[in-house]
Amino acid sequence: MKVLRLRPGKERSLQRRHPWVFESAIAKGGGDAGETVRIESADGKFLAWAAFSPNSKIRARAWSFDEKQRIDAAFFASRVASAVEARGLFDLQSDGVRLIHGEADGLPGLIVDRYGDTLVAQFLSAGVERWKAVLADALLAATGLQKLYERSDASGREREGLPPVTGWLRGSGETELTIREHEWRLSLDVATGHKTGFYLDQRDSRKRFAELAAQRRFRRVLNCFCYTGGFTVAALAGLKSAGATTGAELISIDSSLPALERARAHLALNGFDDAQAEFLDADVNASLRRFVDEGRTFDAIVLDPPKFAPTVAHAERAARAYKDLNRQAFKLLAPGGHLLTFSCSGGIGADLFHKIVASAGIDAGVDGYITERLGAAPDHPMTIEFPEGEYLKGLVVVRK
Ligand code: SAH
After folding, report:
1. For residue 39, what are the domain limits?
2. Claim to verify: residue 135 and residue 219 sit in the same structural domain
């Protein structure tokens, strides 16, 4: 059994059950990629069992803080089963569900989404890579499903020194799928879509947008970074439920053409009229500037940009990018209009995001009420021990 000895004072975060051990905390020891190592404090006390990652700055990720725990197939079966069982606690209103959310589910580096009868997994750390076959079997056993597609092609793999891998890991079938979310239907392709195919984390905010559309009867809606049009479908569904679709205009912008084509197809899939929505294959920043120049305004704007700051190190540049976007959006917001603005950057905390949005409003000369805070749907849990889990934050701002 291999041992990793920490430098003096570096045991504290593990004692608080934070699962990461950085390269700089290690005095000596190591192992092979993904091998289970025993982590000890500088004075030789047991701290955790962890998976060693020889190429990553996060050099080890803890599996367990219990010295008696064996890290074996039964351990992984039990972790997977409890994560799957926990999803039964949430009222998700969808058959697209995040079943395993990495560290928050005690499985650092593993992401698993379920779309109907198909599972899609990302193995993003050396530890879960090493236990891939065991985890795949555990996933099928815990869900009773047979199909598991691997999408281990995220950038996190590189940092772990792992090559990209995609394809069926268990079973096989169609990669093109349709899920039900709330009262609407959305399609995705698990082989070619972003991440595992779809942004499940915004499920509750899409629902909220539908409710606001129904209550406020939005006329002009701008959905920026629309991907496959989830917020566009939500707005139309809300308007339809209020009998207020006539005369509404929706503009959705993304720089991915395949995503936009799917967004357009989602109108027909949900029984909406094509003529009501316009889809722009364009850069959001440039489009917002153009709309400002043209003097256009909107009753509702969604800003859901990609991750600008994956870690705290990127926070400053990312903050400027978020501020710029939000400033333009504020200028386009009609009085009484709603801005739903998001950041999915782990490196930008909720307080900082709030400050960025506030200073964007000040620069735009616009005041507003922050009426709601939004976050990831509950199947993307945050835990007390792992604050980095709070990556997605959103604000609803209503212009005065
Ligand atoms: N709101 C979406 C998810 C957005 S993900 C949903 O509910 O599903 C972020 C999207 O931003 C991606 O689809 C990506 O293609 C797009 N994107 C990234 N940079 C962009 C840019 N500069 N201009 C337009 N779209 C961009």
Report:
1. 3-64
2. no
Whether residues 89 and 124 fall in one domain: yes
How far does CA 120 lie from the centroid of its chain?
14
pLDDT given at position 387: 84
Task: Provide the sign of the torsion angle of the four alpha carbons 105, 111, 113, 119, taken in this order.
Answer: negative
Q: What is the CATH number of the domain that holds 25?
A: 2.30.130.10
Q: Please give the structure tokens belonging to residue 66.
A: 């219990």
Is residue 344 part of the annotated active site? The answer reads yes
CATH code of the domain in which 328 resides: 3.40.50.150
Same structural domain, 203 and 175: no
Of the listed 214, 250, 315, 344, which one is catalytic? 344
Are 167 and 209 contained in the same domain? no
Lining ligand 1 with CB less than 6 A are 199, 202, 225-228, 230-231, 253-256, 259, 283-284, 304, 306
CA-based nearest residue to 273, from 239, 224, 297 = 239
- Tell me the CA distances in angstroms from 209 to 218, 275, 340, 369, 395, one per residue in order: 10, 21, 8, 17, 12
Rg (CA), the chain: 22
Q: Does residue 190 belong to any structural domain of this protein?
A: no
Residues of the chain with pLDDT under 70: none
Q: Is 188 inside a domain boundary?
A: no
- Of 116, 149, 181, the one marking the end of a domain is 181
Query: Ligand 1, residues 255, 260, 340, 345: which to mutate, most atoms within 8 A of Cβ?
Result: 255
Give the integer Cα–Cα distance in Å for 75 and 80. 9
Residue finishing a domain among 64, 82, 114:
64
Q: In this structure, which residue's CA is closest to atom 13 in ligand 1?
A: 227
Q: Measuring from atom 22 of ligand 1, which residue has the nearest CA? A: 283
Q: Are residues 218 and 350 in the same domain?
A: yes
Record the pTM. 0.96
Question: Could you tell me how many residues make up the chain?
Answer: 400
> What is the phi/psi pair of residue 130, to 5°?
-65, -35
pLDDT tens column, 67-104: 999 999 999 999 999 999 999 888 888 999 999 999 99
Tens digit of each residue's pLDDT (9 = 90 or more) over 231-281: 999 999 999 999 999 999 999 999 999 999 999 999 999 999 888 899 999
- Which residue puts its alpha carbon closest to atom 23 of ligand 1? 283
